[in-house]
Amino acid sequence: MKLNMPIKYLIFYVFMSALGVLSFIMFGHYLSMVLEDIVIEGAAPAADALVWIALFFILYALLSALYKVVGARVANRRIEALTHRVVSRIDDQTRKHSESMLNAIFVHLEKYRPFEKVFIPTVIQTAVKITVIIAAMFLIHRNAAFIMLFTAPFVPLYYVLVGLRTKDESEAQAAQFDELGTLFLNLIRGKNTVKYTGAENTVIAKLKQYNESYVRETMHILKYAFQSTLMLEFITILGIGLIALEVGLQIIIFDGITFYAAFFTLLLAPEFYNALKVLGIEFHNGKLSQGHLERIEEWLDTASDRSDYRTFDASTQSVALRNVSIGHGQGMLLENVDMALPKTGFVAITGPSGIGKSTFIRTLLGLHRPETGTVALSEEGVGYISDEVYFSDTTIHEYVSDGEYEEADVVRILDQLGLMDSLDNLEEGINTPIVNHNIPLSGGEIVRLKMARVLIRRPRIILMDEPTEFLDATTEALIMEHLAELKQEAAIVAVVHRRKLLKIADRHYTFSNRQITLAKGES
């Protein structure tokens, strides 16, 4: 099985495992010496030997604990990196696969975690442990070493055969879970449609079908797990029993082994077979986890594998488009557009509804990949104001500050936008919770709240989609005043419908005939 682990981690795991098993062997060595002195010689144990026993036992325990901690941290770091790979593939083109994406992140990643956290460290630790123990056994009692060599392969051989079958079952189970989760999420979204079309019986039957299929795959996996555990215990008991029988015959009949060697052998044999047993169990779990990894990789393969079409260079204009085309086939919105926007100033964009203005803004944000071309931005931190921003499970203060600004700063920007009078009337003020998009503000106040989130940060590039929609004349004048001030130090690109905003615009572009052109009378 491919571990897919960087060499630096493999070397560290091997080193830690070797130290751990050598500590255990040294513990067994001194313990066997002390017991031989007591049982055979009838002498009191030496003080220095007792000290060594305690020292190596503590060292073994510490190394075992440290190994688990390091393994968990490495696993978390690698899972985090894999999560970033999944998240980085989320764009406008993959929103229709949102259910699969959510399953990939929240279900399959967590079910894959044991592979990184437990399986890989266990495989390496077991391989090192059995190698060192067999090497030590050839020096302590050669016959026991040969018995170990003869019986040990039965465990991995059995688990390779079972594990391959388990992997297939796990992939089927993961696929069934994805289908069940996707169906459930779609039903939640379309619950009203189901209700009003009288499709309850059809939906119930479909859910029952997916549920039964998922349960069936799960039961198959549990069956293999039970059979594997039973066979593993049998092989382990048989191996330890053979070694115990051989040692007993050597002591009683042949008188060919010392008490030291006999006790040391019987101490190391269970450790050897227990390591194989743990490996067998984890091999089964590892194959289950691998099935979930393949579902993640399958999703990544279906997502866009093209590199980011956006670049960032502080020396460029605020926004520079090179040969950008947006749309596809007969539905092209823009074709082969080249344009550059200055680092400061207000750029207004107008055009008929549905011509592609909002899609253009989303392209600048990195949320909609163009058919061709690249977009260069002077800053990575871009402010965005749109009516599509979703509020959930936060407070007004947390939404505006995003954990970066103190309450006084938030109050100041909200007051400048004329929101504090309304917020002071709420029982919890700016700490009022927002749950499931339920926010006690009017449409115009929500627009200002979204603007507050951007204006408090004062980014160098601000993108807006109809920024003054739903605002009354007084509030619109207030927003325009802020934008007029902000444009002195930032580039503001705004899709506008209300003509008043054109008064503060430094440039006015219009959409027509799949092009963006300066409005008449501008240069």
TrEMBL record:
It comes from the Bacteria. It is found in: Cell membrane. Keywords: ATP-binding, Membrane, Nucleotide-binding, Transmembrane, Transmembrane helix. InterPro entries: AAA+_ATPase, ABC1_TM_dom, ABC1_TM_sf, ABC_transporter-like_ATP-bd, ABC_transporter-like_CS, P-loop_NTPase, Type_1_exporter. Residues 319-523 form the ABC transporter domain. Gene3D superfamilies: ABC transporter type 1, transmembrane domain, P-loop containing nucleotide triphosphate hydrolases. The chain crosses the membrane at residues 9-30, 50-70, 118-140, 146-164, 224-245. The keyword Lipid biosynthesis does not apply. It is a multi-pass membrane protein. Residues 10-288 form the ABC transmembrane type-1 domain. One of its GO terms (molecular function) is ATP binding. May be involved in multidrug export. Transmembrane domains (TMD) form a pore in the cell membrane and the ATP-binding domain (NBD) is responsible for energy generation. PANTHER family: ATP-BINDING CASSETTE SUB-FAMILY B (PTHR24221), ATP-BINDING CASSETTE SUB-FAMILY B MEMBER 6 (PTHR24221:SF654). This is ATP-binding cassette domain-containing protein. It comes from Salinicoccus bachuensis.
